[in-house]
Amino acid sequence: PVVFVLNGPNLNLLGLREPAIYGSATLADVEQIARRAGESLGLAIDFRQSNHEGDLVDWIQEARTKAVGLVINAGALTHTSVAIHDAVRAVGLPMIEVHLSNVHARESFRHHSYLSPVAAGVIVGLGADGYDFALQALARRLLPRDP
Ligand code: DQA
């Protein structure tokens, strides 16, 4: 089973960008964390990043036939994008929302998320490990263990 792990604007600059807030891990490091988690959970990871809202909408739609779940860090689009909200709702796949930083401890404009109402769960403030935890949570939903 494939999980799409989608990253939005400016996450390509991870490691360079405000390391005091986002940490020193690069997006390649985050991808490695996600791939390792996928390997141990039996999930194939399709890891992508774009600075463009429409790419994220296209990829969420693509996931409908190719993936069993989504992990999304939409970056600043989290706080603005009705289109991404609608796309997640339209495909009906379980989605875990991830943020590296604790958005609730930051500016008030980061406190509202258009993704949270369509997320199965939300992980904030735990850095790159949040992607690992998100994949564990998806795996539990998708591949329930024997009672
Ligand atoms: C972020 C938080 C957003 O508010 C911000 O715009 C980002 C990154 C995070 O991972 O902490 O680009 O999604």
UniProtKB/TrEMBL annotation:
Catalysed reaction, written as an equation: 3-dehydroquinate = 3-dehydroshikimate + H2O
Biological pathway: Metabolic intermediate biosynthesis; chorismate biosynthesis; chorismate from D-erythrose 4-phosphate and phosphoenolpyruvate: step 3/7
UniProt GO molecular function: 3-dehydroquinate dehydratase activity
Site (Transition state stabilizer): R17
InterPro entries: DHquinase_II, DHquinase_II_CS, DHquinase_II_sf
Catalytic residue list: Y22 (proton acceptor), H99 (proton donor)
The protein's Enzyme Commission number: 4.2.1.10
Residues that bind substrate: N73, H79, D86, L100, S101, R110
Keywords: Amino-acid biosynthesis, Aromatic amino acid biosynthesis, Lyase
PROSITE patterns, sorted: DEHYDROQUINASE_II
Recorded superkingdom: Bacteria
Quaternary structure annotation from Swiss-Prot or TrEMBL: Homododecamer.
Entry-linked NCBIfam families: aroQ, PRK05395.1-2, PRK05395.1-3, PRK05395.1-4
Family recorded in the similarity comment: Belongs to the type-II 3-dehydroquinase family.
Known function: Catalyzes a trans-dehydration via an enolate intermediate.
UniProt name for this protein: 3-dehydroquinate dehydratase
